[in-house]
Amino acid sequence: MTKGLVRGFRATSVSQNPASDIAPKRTLSAKGRLVLQTGASTTIAAPASWGGHFWGRTLCSEDSTGKFSCVTGDCGSDKLKCSGNGAAPPATLAEFTLDGAGGLNFFDVSLVDGYNVPMLVVPQGGSGEKCTATGCMEDLNDACPSELKVMGMDGREGVVVGKSTCEAFNSPQYCCSGAYGTPDTCKPSAYSAIFKSVTPSTPTYI
C-alpha cells in the first residue's frame, strides 16, 4: 500500500468539484454534519494524533418521514449526521493517521472498499520524499467490469458505484481471509489490476 508522508499537517480542506452535490462524512466529530454544494469547499481542523476517514455520500434524499439516505456511501443513521457510523461499501475512502510512526502523518486514498466518487489528497506545506498528491480523479464507473457495477435504483443514473471484489464475490480469495489472509497469499486480482492501471497510486486491494 502506497502512503504519503507529511510533517506539520493539521487541517484538511474538502472541496466538491463533480457535477452533483455530495454530503461528505468525516469522523472528527460525531456531532458534525456537512453538505457541500457543487464547487464549494470547507476546512476542518484535526486534533493531534487523530486517525480516521473521509468519504463522500451521493444521490442523497429525505423521504416524507424525514429519513435521510444516500444511494452511495450511506452510513445507515437515517439522518444527515452519521453519529460515528462508517460508510457502507462501495465507497472511496481518504484515510489519515496524524502523528503516526516517527511522528509522521500518513495519508492515502483507498479503493479497497470499492469506488463511488473521484478523490484526491493534496498535502500543503509538508516535506518528505512521499509528500505528494495521491488519489484517483478518474471516473472509474466506465472502466468497472459489469459484475462489479451497481446501477442507480431507478436506472436513470446509470452506473453509480463500483463494488470491491470482496463485496461482490464474498470469497476468501478476494477478501484476503482464511487461506488468503497473509501478504504472501493475498495477491492482486485481474480486477484490481484494471483499476490500478487507471489510478496507480491508489490502493485497490487489501
From TrEMBL:
Disulfide bond positions: C60-C70, C75-C82, C166-C175, C176-C186
Pfam families associated with the record: Thaumatin
PROSITE patterns named among the record's database cross-references: THAUMATIN_2
Keywords attached to this entry: Disulfide bond
InterPro entries: Osmotin/thaumatin-like_sf, Thaumatin
Residues that span the membrane, as ranges: none
Presence of the UniProt keyword Protease in the record: no
Origin superkingdom: Eukaryota
Family, per entry: Belongs to the thaumatin family.
Database matches in PANTHER family: OS03G0233200 PROTEIN (PTHR31048)
Protein name, UniProt field: Thaumatin-like protein 1
